[in-house]
From TrEMBL, chain A:
InterPro entries, alphabetized: Longin-like_dom_sf (IPR011012), Longin_dom (IPR010908), R-SNARE_YKT6 (IPR045848), V_SNARE_CC (IPR042855)
Subcellular location(s) per record: Cytoplasmic vesicle membrane; Golgi apparatus membrane
A biological-process GO annotation: endoplasmic reticulum to Golgi vesicle-mediated transport
Protein task: Vesicular soluble NSF attachment protein receptor (v-SNARE) mediating vesicle docking and fusion to a specific acceptor cellular compartment. Functions in endoplasmic reticulum to Golgi transport; as part of a SNARE complex composed of GOSR1, GOSR2 and STX5. Functions in early/recycling endosome to TGN transport; as part of a SNARE complex composed of BET1L, GOSR1 and STX5. Has a S-palmitoyl transferase activity.
Keywords of the record: Coiled coil, Lipoprotein, Membrane, Methylation, Palmitate, Prenylation
Start and end residues of each V-SNARE coiled-coil homology domain: 139-199
A GO MF label: SNAP receptor activity
Organism superkingdom: Eukaryota
Protein family per UniProt: Belongs to the synaptobrevin family.
Name recorded for this polypeptide: Synaptobrevin homolog YKT6
From TrEMBL, chain B:
GO MF annotations, alphabetized: protein prenyltransferase activity
Domain of life of the native organism: Eukaryota
Record's keyword terms, sorted: Prenyltransferase, Repeat, Transferase
Protein species of origin: Cephus cinctus (Wheat stem sawfly)
Coiled coil: none
Family: Belongs to the protein prenyltransferase subunit alpha family.
SUPFAM superfamilies attached to this UniProt entry: Protein prenylyltransferase
Organism ancestry: Eukaryota, Metazoa, Ecdysozoa, Arthropoda, Hexapoda
Pfam annotation, one family: PPTA
Name this polypeptide is given: Protein prenyltransferase alpha subunit repeat-containing protein 1
GO cellular component: cytoplasm
């Protein structure tokens, strides 16, 4: 399915990453799962930003989902979670444009002290909604297509992004951002061997 | 036995039953992962959604299943139908693949113990949870048949009833990829619609045409949705209704013109396509001079044909935007074949007939005869399709990988139906 689920702007500090703004489109998930799905997407976005080097792009495939991350040279980061059928190039173009616009509103020296509560950046909603149809959004980004696709590092699982010795299971059980309910979701999904597929 | 160890079963079943009965706008059912029971009820109900905690699933299902099998083994036993229907509800909600249980519900419907309208709501909830369940769709069709034909008082608003079916099919297709059962249910309902609500049939077809296009733009590798569009396209192509203002002949002609425009060189042809009579335009498009027959509605024919060209352009567009999706290439094969069929049909009848659609081989032979037959000029329609295909294949080959392999296969396919690029 050509679909976007989550778009997050983060600040990658020296130790951990802080989300500055996040928006979700989870209508296709069933009602009682939405909360957990959202927590998971936030968890994955933060984890992956922390494990991406400064000035690097990565795209990670996990089941039927794609997670795209771009950390700029100045430590501002964007993560987009989409379905795997959504075109990768458009995803990265979207992140680039979004971060540019964000940086023009908030100066770099304010990023370390910003957080989701204090930061007002409604444009992120517009981006998520508009780019749901990549063909429409793509039309005007094609012109300024300076994105070098060969520089995007591709991974086939989330595990591949983690550092040596790290396990996703451990990260999940240690995470403070995930509720008991979400951890139960994770365990059940793991058992049925469909890590991120919470829909069925 | 297992069921005796789960005393809460009847209470849980009646809780679920209450939700189903009281919340007329209930949308969904799902299982909520939970590690233990924490001594709380496993039934959750909020915002028209029903959830059941996962710890209760196994004992609850075993309870309902064993009770039902017990009942069937002892034929002489009498059990209150409302209790039986509750067991059935529990068993089918958790595992709808058991035809025996659906059959037991059919019996309850026939004896008037269950209301068919309530039943349609229940099956919709089952389909939310198991969207690809064939038994559930089969039972829905049986219910429709029962309500529309066998019931003593048929429903007054057939249109709403059938539109609801389309809604359920659409929900199921969203919930599960490649859900061919959902789409064939939808085809079945469209067929019913044609027979029972003929006045609104054409407008339904057009609505379906638009909404399935939207759906296919989102689900680019889902052939089941494209197959449904093939079904719609055939229905539109073969339509014989007289032309009305809602057909928007000017707009449809514009779509046809847009399709052939890149392959047209002469200005006389442009003026025929834009301002000539429908008969002249069709003759030019198909490359036959069939004369003007008074028994043929050429306007209708021209409008019908425009849907085919619309689909070709839609396919062009998607194939360019999303490389590496085989479903799109298979759709293109269908379109290539359809163009050959329509040309043959037009030559023979000056209109489009269904009989030529299926026997693929026969078409090929007919076509060979045509090569030496009475073809007056090239078919503008075929040339336009070939030009567009050439372009698509060229782009696909430059993409490399899977996309170029699929382009080659498509080219090979064209030679089997005698289309030369």
């Amino acid at each position: 399915m050509v679909k976007l689920y989550a778009l997050t702007i983060l600040y990658k500090g020296p130790i951990s990453a802080t989300p500055l703004k996040a928006v979700y489109e989870l209508g296709s998930f069933s009602f009682f799962q939405r909360g957990s799905v959202q927590e998971f997407m936030a968890f994955v976005s933060k984890t992956i930003t922390e494990r991406t080097q400064i000035a690097a792009r990565q795209s990670v495939k996990e089941g039927e989902y794609m997670c795209h991350v771009y950390v700029r040279g100045d430590s501002l980061a964007g993560v987009l979670i989409s379905d795997h059928e959504y075109p990768n190039r458009v995803s990265h173009t979207l992140i680039t444009k979004l971060l540019d616009e964000f940086a023009s509103k908030y100066p770099p020296d304010s990023w370390p002290t910003l957080n989701e509560a204090t930061c007002s950046f409604p444009q992120v909603n517009t981006y998520l909604a508009k780019y749901q149809n990549p063909r429409e959004a793509d039309a005007f980004t094609k012109m300024q297509n300076d994105l070098d696709e060969t520089k995007i590092i591709l991974h086939n699982t989330i595990e591949a992004v983690l550092e040596r010795g790290e396990k996703l299971d451990d990260l999940v059980s240690k995470s403070e951002g995930l509720s008991m309910q979400s951890k139960a979701f994770y365990k059940t999904a793991r058992k049925t061997n469909s890590c991120c597929s919470l829909t069925a | 036995m297992q069921e005796d160890t789960f005393p809460a079963a009847e209470k849980i079943l009646s809780d679920i039953d209450n939700v189903l009965r009281k919340d007329l706008n209930l949308v969904s059912f799902e299982i909520i992962p939970a590690l233990d029971n924490e001594n709380k009820s496993p039934v959750f109900h909020a915002e028209n959604s029903l959830g059941l905690a996962s710890w209760s699933v196994k004992p609850l299902y075993c309870y309902a299943y064993n009770r039902l099998l017990d009942l069937r083994r002892n034929k002489h036993r009498r059990e209150d139908p409302s209790v039986v229907s509750r067991w059935l509800m529990g068993a089918l909600l958790l595992n709808p693949d058991i035809s025996t249980f659906w059959n037991m519900r059919r019996e309850l419907i026939k004896s008037g113990r269950l209301d068919p309208t309530d039943e349609l709501r229940f099956v919709a909830i089952v389909l939310y949870y198991k969207a690809k369940c064939f038994e559930a769709f089969a039972y829905r069709r049986w219910l429709l048949q029962y309500m529309l034909v066998e019931q003593k008082q048929p429903p007054t608003d057939v249109e709403t009833l059938l539109r609801n079916e389309i809604h359920v099919a659409s929900m199921s297709a969203d919930r599960y990829a490649n859900n061919c059962h959902a789409w064939s249910h939808r085809e079945h309902v469209v067929g019913n619609f044609e027979a029972l609500v003929p006045a609104a049939y054409m407008s339904l077809l057009k609505e379906e045409w638009t909404s399935s296009e939207k759906w296919c733009t989102k689900h680019i590798s889902d052939y089941s949705g494209l197959a449904y569009r093939q079904f719609l396209l055939k229905s539109l192509l073969l339509s014989e209704n007289s032309v009305t203002a809602s057909d928007n002949i000017v707009g449809r002609r514009e779509i046809l013109y847009e399709f052939v425009k890149p392959s047209i060189r002469e200005s006389t042809e442009v003026s025929i396509l834009r301002d000539g009579s429908s008969n002249e335009a069709l003759d030019l498009l198909h490359g036959f001079d069939t004369g003007n027959r008074s028994d043929i509605d050429y306007d209708r024919c021209l409008i019908n044909l425009s849907y085919l060209t619309e689909e070709c352009m839609f396919n062009d567009d998607l194939t360019r935007s999303y490389p590496d999706h085989e479903a799109l290439w298979y759709q293109r094969r269908f379109l290539a074949h359809t163009i050959v069929v329509l040309t043959a049909s037009y030559e023979k009848y000056s209109s489009y007939k269904i009989e030529l659609f299926d026997p693929r081989l026969k078409i090929r032979q007919d076509k060979i005869v045509n090569e030496t037959g009475n073809r007056s000029s090239v078919s503008r329609l075929e040339v336009a399709f070939q030009d567009r295909s050439k372009e698509i294949i060229k782009i696909a080959k430059s993409c490399g990988h899977h996309q170029s392999t699929m382009a080659e296969k498509f080219q090979k396919f064209l030679t089997t139906i005698n289309v030369q690029l």
